[in-house]
Design a protein that fits this description.
By secondary structure, the chain is mainly beta. It has helices at about 70, 145-154, and strands spanning about 15-20, 25-30, 35-40, 55-60, 60-70, 85-90, 95-100, 100-110, 130-135, 140-145.
Length: about 150
C-alpha cells in the first residue's frame, strides 16, 4: 500500500496594488502607499535638484516634490497627455509624486507567486524591483518604493 500523498498548497498572501504603465510595461505599488492619483497639475522647476526630480507642486497646500519615473529608469521621455497621472505617496519621512503614463488598475496579487527580479540586464530600474509576477497573462513588476524614493528625497 502506498503512503497517502498529501498535497501541500501554500495559502495565498494577497496584497492590493495599483498598477501603472510606462510605455508598454506595467509596474505595481502597494495601494497602502498611495494617498491619491492626480491629473498633472502645474509643476514648478527647482534649479539644482536631482535629474529625476522635475520640480514641486502645491497639492492641497503641501509642497510636494515630483519625480519623473522615466528618468529614474532611463526610459525615453515622452510628452504628457490626458492619461498621464501623478501617484502621490505619503510616508512619515516624505511626501512625493511619481509621474507615470497611466494608472487605472487596482488588483490583488499573491505575494507567494511573486518571483525574484531577473538578474540585472543593464537597466537601472532593476535596483528598485521587489519582484515580478504574472497575473492573467500580464507580467507586472512590483517596485520597492523605499529604494526608489528615499535616495532622492533625503
Amino acid at each position: 500500500m502506498e503512503p497517502e500523498q498529501l498535497e501541500h498548497t501554500e495559502e495565498a498572501v494577497l496584497t492590493k496594488v495599483i498598477v501603472f504603465q510606462l510605455n508598454e510595461e506595467e509596474f505595481a505599488i502597494d495601494v497602502r502607499r498611495i494617498q491619491s492619483i492626480e491629473k498633472v497639475k502645474s509643476i514648478t522647476r527647482i534649479p539644482g535638484s536631482a535629474a529625476a526630480i522635475v520640480g514641486v507642486m502645491n497639492l492641497r497646500g503641501i509642497i510636494t516634490p515630483v519625480i519623473e519615473v522615466r528618468t529614474l529608469f532611463q526610459i525615453q521621455g515622452r510628452e504628457m497627455d490626458e492619461h498621464t497621472r501623478i501617484l502621490v505617496l505619503v510616508r512619515e519621512e516624505y511626501e512625493a509624486g511619481l509621474i507615470v503614463d497611466g494608472a487605472n488598475d487596482v488588483m490583488d496579487i499573491d505575494l507567494n507567486r511573486m518571483e525574484a527580479p531577473p538578474e540585472s540586464s543593464g537597466h537601472r530600474k532593476n535596483e528598485y524591483v521587489d519582484g515580478v509576477i504574472m497575473v492573467d497573462g500580464r507580467l507586472i513588476t512590483v517596485l520597492d518604493l523605499d529604494k526608489l524614493i528615499t535616495p532622492l528625497i533625503k
